[in-house]
Amino acid sequence: MNPDNNKKNSKKNYVKLGAYILILFVLMLICYNLFGNWSNTKSGFASLFQAVSPFLYGFILSYFLSALSDSIEKFLFYKIRKKPVPEKLEQRGYKRVISVIITYIIVVGVLIFILAVIIPQMIETISSLIDRSGDLYNNAKNTFDRFVERHPELDLSFVQEFMDKNMGLLFNDATTAIESILPRLYSISRSTISFIYTVAMTFILSIYFLWDKERIKAGILDIADAFLPKDKSENFREIAHTSNKIFGNFLIGKAIDSLIIGIITFVAMNLIGLFGVPGFHEYSLILSLIVGFTNMIPYFGPIIGAIPGILLFLAIKPSSALIFAIMILVIQQFDGNYLGPKILGNATGLAPIWVILAVVMGGYMVGVLGMFLGVPVVAVLVYLAGLWIDYKKKQKALSEEPADPGTEEKDTKEEAGVIENIPGAEEVIGDVADTFKEE
């Protein structure tokens, strides 16, 4: 080998090694500055998140509203209107304009309904609970005392002692917290300038994202085509499409399912309240909202949503708590066996153990939001892991596949042909063979 080439290669290796050391040093310096001044880093990340939060919220809102906008567009221009849209109007985005306007009219109408009807009723319900907290505590204590008297064979003295010492403080603390926190949050949400700015920018940016979603999608795919090989770019498109389908189908389907369950709970509680069951009519709104909201959490959501109502009705009248528990059980059986499969189908393809793991880990790491998003995130990760495993299995199968005898024979003949074409090659090989025979 040429010594000059060796010197050039060694120089290149030294340059690469120096570049790697420099990059590693820079990364270590960045990590030291980030984690060494964690309070400043945390505040910096908080400021950055506050700056980009309207973009994030706008994207999330447009992501949820995209399905509604597409449904409106298909309904108006493919089912009602049989004729094709004129080309000039098609070029100007006529269909998108109409569908986006109708979508946001619906959104604004829902928000007005929430602000004008639901929130005042919730405030009234919470105020009623605060005013009745003392009576509810006394009712709960008297009910427990009567139960102890009827069943003297059960030693429940420790429970009674605990209630005497702590339940009164618990009710007082809860009452104080509700009285101080809820009005403050309500007033802050109404008066803070940053909150109004975030809401306004979220709506404006969501309109932009919804309006130009095809162009944004095409831009992302163009970037993938520019930086990835053709086969890798096609794989990226397929993975992105499938991941979006898994994530979107679950979230949107689960939101629709939870909305229906909340409405069914509200209607059922008011119908049962007509028969004179205490508390069902007064607390139907707030409890149906809790049940519908927590229903977004798979498996654990119905249990979490039922606990506040059962505890509340135990303080009012134990029979109401039993009726409420039976009602929730019936509604959840309807949801699990009919409504959920009808809307969601097999949206994630996860086994129950994976769903439970996703909810638990998501709740531990991120809190309530993690319990909502844990399942679709894990579903996407399992899908990607499945693709990677299939790829590795194919690679292993190709490496272990035995060679074709016909191919080996063909290669031997080609090598023999090459030897024949070299002048003097046969004589040299013959001499070597004779030498080995003499030895």
Cα separation of the termini: 35 Å
Radius of gyration: 34 Å
State the helicity in percent bands. over 70%
Low-confidence stretches: 413-422, 435-439
Main sheet characteristics: none
User: What percent of residues are in strands?
Assistant: under 5%
Average pLDDT metric: 76
Number of strands: 0
SSE pattern: HHHHHHHHHHHHHHHH
Tally of DSSP helical segments: 16
Shape: globular
Structural class: mainly alpha
Structure explained in plain terms:
The chain is mainly alpha-helical and 439 residues long. The protein is 87% helix and 0% strand. The protein has 16 helices and no strands. Helix 5 crosses helix 11 (301-316). The protein is globular and about 90 Å long. The two termini are 35 Å apart. The model is unreliable at 413-422 and 435-439 (pLDDT under 50).
Task: Pick out its properties.
0% strand; disordered C terminus; 87% helix; mainly alpha; 439 residues
Topology, please?
Blueprint: H1 3-36, H2 38-80, H3 87-91, H4 94-131, H5 133-150, H6 157-191, H7 193-211, H8 213-227, H9 230-273, H10 284-294, H11 301-316, H12 318-344, H13 352-366, H14 368-400, H15 405-421, H16 425-438
Helix pairs in contact: 2-4, 2-7, 5-6, 5-11, 8-9, 9-10, 9-12, 9-14, 10-11, 11-12, 13-14
Can you summarize this structure?
With 439 residues, this protein is mainly alpha-helical. Helices cover 87% and strands 0% of the residues. The chain has helices spanning 3-36, 38-80, 87-91, 94-131, 133-150, 157-191, 193-211, 213-227, 230-273, 284-294, 301-316, 318-344, 352-366, 368-400, 405-421, 425-438.
